[in-house]
Design goal:
9-stranded mixed sheet, 6 helices, 24% strand, homotetramer, 266 residues, alpha/beta, two-stranded antiparallel ribbon, Rossmann fold
Chain lengths: 266, 266, 266, 266
Amino acid sequence: MKESVIHVYERPQLRDPVFIEGLPGIGLVGKLAAEHLIQELNAVKFAELYSPHFMHQVLIKKNSVVELMKNEFYYWKNPNENGRDIIIITGDQQVPPTDSPGHFEVVGKMLDFVSEFGVREIITMGGYQVPELQGEPRVLAAVTHEELVEYYQKKLEGCQVEVIWREDEGGAIVGAAGLLLGMGKLRSMFGVSLLGESLGYIVDAKAAKSVLLAVTKILGLELDMTALEERAKETEEILRKVQEMQRAMLEQQMPPAPEEEDRGYL
Amino acid sequence: MKESVIHVYERPQLRDPVFIEGLPGIGLVGKLAAEHLIQELNAVKFAELYSPHFMHQVLIKKNSVVELMKNEFYYWKNPNENGRDIIIITGDQQVPPTDSPGHFEVVGKMLDFVSEFGVREIITMGGYQVPELQGEPRVLAAVTHEELVEYYQKKLEGCQVEVIWREDEGGAIVGAAGLLLGMGKLRSMFGVSLLGESLGYIVDAKAAKSVLLAVTKILGLELDMTALEERAKETEEILRKVQEMQRAMLEQQMPPAPEEEDRGYL
Amino acid sequence: MKESVIHVYERPQLRDPVFIEGLPGIGLVGKLAAEHLIQELNAVKFAELYSPHFMHQVLIKKNSVVELMKNEFYYWKNPNENGRDIIIITGDQQVPPTDSPGHFEVVGKMLDFVSEFGVREIITMGGYQVPELQGEPRVLAAVTHEELVEYYQKKLEGCQVEVIWREDEGGAIVGAAGLLLGMGKLRSMFGVSLLGESLGYIVDAKAAKSVLLAVTKILGLELDMTALEERAKETEEILRKVQEMQRAMLEQQMPPAPEEEDRGYL
Amino acid sequence: MKESVIHVYERPQLRDPVFIEGLPGIGLVGKLAAEHLIQELNAVKFAELYSPHFMHQVLIKKNSVVELMKNEFYYWKNPNENGRDIIIITGDQQVPPTDSPGHFEVVGKMLDFVSEFGVREIITMGGYQVPELQGEPRVLAAVTHEELVEYYQKKLEGCQVEVIWREDEGGAIVGAAGLLLGMGKLRSMFGVSLLGESLGYIVDAKAAKSVLLAVTKILGLELDMTALEERAKETEEILRKVQEMQRAMLEQQMPPAPEEEDRGYL
C-alpha cells in the first residue's frame, strides 16, 4: 500500500450532497458529532479509506476481531424530496501531525472521491480549545469565500447556539477540518468550518452538541441529542484501552534515542 | 534501494502453507518464538527481505562479518503427508514506529511474496505487556473474522496455556503482528494473532513458550521447549552489544537539535 | 497534492528580472523586508505556490476566510525604461526544518518557475542571529561566485548600512535563503544573500530596514521606510493568534509519545 | 531535486580501483582520514554528489562563497604501473540518522557511480567509540565475507597499529561506513571497514592516524602524517562556526512543538 485507497461498497445516486467531516481532533468534538449524526440519521456506510499514513496497527474490535485503522464514508438520503442528501466522513484517526504530506495526500483522496458524487459544499466539524467556558460552548465559524459569511448567517438565524464570526485576521485550523476547505477551494468547492469551544483533553459531548445544533440548523434538520452524553462515555473508555496497549508496543519497537546533547551535523 | 526487495534463494512447492510471523517487539516474544520454531523444526531459509525502511546500518556477525539489517523467510515441509507446510518470518528488526508508510510498504511486500506460495492463513506472534503476571503467561488472541473465534477455540481445546478472547472493544496490535492480519484481510486472507503476556523490557522466554504452546496446538505439532531459556540469554547478550555501538554512532551523526523552546512556524 | 504546485494568475513580460526572496526565518527579517518592498513598490501578485510540505492547516484571514498555507510571487515593472524588473517571493512559511527533501523540492519548483521569466540573478534576504547589537544592525553578505564580491561591493558603495564580507570559512545559511543560491548556482544562476543582524525571537523591523537599505542600493531604488515599524507590530499580533490556536490543535492529533527511555531497536 | 545527483567533471580511466570512504561520523575520524589521504596523495576531484537528503542549507566557504552540502569523489592514479588506483569519497555530511531511506538512496547512488569505474573492493573508515583509551587507538576491522579476514590479516602483517578482529557476534556499523559494505555485498562487491578507537566528541587526529596506518598498509602506500594534527584543529574551528549560525536559523524555522504530554492518537 503506497498511497491511500478507498474501498467502495456501494455507489448511491445522491442529490446535490453536502459533505460533512468529523474526524478525531480537539476534545474529539468532530468525531463525536459525526458519529451521532450517523446514528440518528441511520446513515449508511458505503466506502472506507485506508492509508499508509495512518498508524501501522490494527484495532481490536468487539469479539476479538481486528481491523486496520480507517476512515469511513456514510451517506444519507433526504426523505424530503426537495432536500439535499448528505455524505459524512468519520474514522479512527487523522494522519499524525508529523506527516504533513500524508495529510495532503489523504485529504486529496477524500475530495477526489466525494467529487464523484457531485459534492460542491463542505461542512467541517471540530473543537476549538479555550481556557475557560462560560455557559454553553459557542461555535467558531470560518468559510472558504467571503460572500459565504452572509449566506451561512442567514441559515443560522434563530440557531440555539452562539456562532462567532471573526473579522480580524489570525488563527489556524489544523488537519482535515482545515485542509478540506483549503484544498476544496482550489477545486471550486466551498464551505464552512464549525468549531465548538472546548476545554480539550476530554471527549466533549457539550461542544459536539453545540456544533451539531449549528450544522442541523444549516441543513434544516432536527436531531435528537439525548444519546450524545452516553456515546461520549463509551468512546472515552474504548480510547483508554487502545492507548494502553498501543503505548507499550510502540515503546518496544523504538530505535535507541540518541542522547539529548548538542552535537554537530558533520 | 528505493523500496523493499526480497532475495529468493529457493522456490519450494508448499502444501497449503500457514504463514507464521515472529518479529522483534514487546519482550522479543515473537522473535524468540519464531527462532525457536525454526531451530526445532530445522526449517530452511529460502528468502531474505531488505528494506530502505530498516536502520541504515550493518550488524557485525560472528567472525567479523557484516550484514545489512534484514528479515528472513524459512519454510518447513510437513513430513505428515496430510499435514500443512509452514512459512516462518523473523528478522533483525521491524520498521521503526516513526515510519508508518514504511511499515505498510514492508508488510505489503511480505504478503505479496507469501501469496506466491499459496498462503491464505496467517498466525502472528508477539508480546502483550501487563503490569504483573500470575502464574504462567496467558495468551491474548485476536482474529481477522468473527467466525474464526470458534474455529481456533476448537483447535486450542486442551491447550496447556490459557488463551484469552476478549468480547469488548478496545486495544491495538502495533506493527507487523497487527498489519499482516489487517492488510491480509483486505486480500481475502485470514488468521489469528497470539500475544503472550509479558512484563516487557526483557527477552521473555516464558511468554514465548506460552505463545508457542498455543501455535503448536493449532498446527498439531509437538515442540521441545528446553533450549528456549538458553536462546533468550544469548539474544540478550548480542542485543546489548549492538545497542552500545549503535548508540554512539547515531549520536555523532545527528544534526544539531534546535533548543526545546516554544517558537512559531513562521 | 503530491508535489508543490504553482497557480499562475498572470504571465508578465519582464525585463531581465532580479528574483528577491523574503520568507519567514530569524526575526522574520526576510518576510518583513519582502512585504515592505511589495507594499511600497505596489508590486503585483501573479502566482501562488502550494505545497504538501507546508503545514497541514489553513490560516483564518480577515472576515473569517480560510486559506491554505502558501508562498506568493509578485512582480514589479521598473518605470525606468533601462531599469530591470523584479520578482519577489514571500509567504506564510517555509518547509519545516525536519523535512529537508521537501525544502529541496519547493526551492526547485521556485527556480523552475522564475526561470520561465528569464531570471538569472537572485537576492535572498534574511536575519543573522547575534548575541548583541552595537548601533544599527549590519548586513552579512555571501555570494554564489567569488568574482561577485567585487561586483556587489561596487554597487553597495555609499550604502547607509555596513555590509560584512567574511574571508574565513565557516557559517551556514539555512532554508530558502541559502538553497536558492546553492541550487541556483547548479543552474548557472548567480546572486547574493543579505542577512541582517538580529537578536532573533522578535519581528525585527530594524534588521529588515538594514537589509532593505542594502537591497535597494544594489537595485538603484529608493524606498520609504516609515511604515516598517507599524507592519512589524501587526505581524507580531497575527502570529501570536495563529500559534495559540494551532498549538492546541496539533497537540490533540498527536500519537502517544513513547516514553523517553533507552530501548533497543530490536 | 527529487533524488541524489552526481555531477561528473572528469571520467578517468582507472586500474582496478579501490573505493575508500571517509565521511563525517564519530570523532570525524573517517572524514579527517580521507581528507589527509586526498591531500597527501594529491588526489583529483572528479565528481560531486548532491542530495535532497542532506541538510537544506549552504555552507559559507572562503571569501563569502556559498555552496550546497555535498560529498566529493577524488581519484588517485598509482604511479607504480602494477599498482591499483584509488577513488576516495568524503564530504560535508551524511544523511541525518532520522532518514534511513535517504541513507539507502545516497549509498545506492555512490555504488552505482563507482561501479562505472570498475570498483570491486571497498574500504570504509570511521571511528569506534570507547570509554577510555590505552596507548595508541586500536582499529576494529569487519569484512563483507568471512574468507576476507585472512586476506586482510596477511596484508596487515607488520602494521604499526593493533587491528582487532572479533569472533563473537554483536555490534553495528551505522551509516555509510556500514551500508557501503552491506549494500555492496548484495552487488558482489567486497571489502573491509576500519574503525579507529575514539573517545568521540572531538576531531580525533589520533584515531584517524591509526586508521590511515591500517589503510595504507593494506594498499602498500606510505603517507606522511605530520599535517594531520593541524588539519584536525582547522576542521574543529570551521565546524564550530557553522554550527553556531545553523542552530539559530533552524530554531526559528521550527513549527511549534506540541507539549510533551501523554495524549491519544485519536
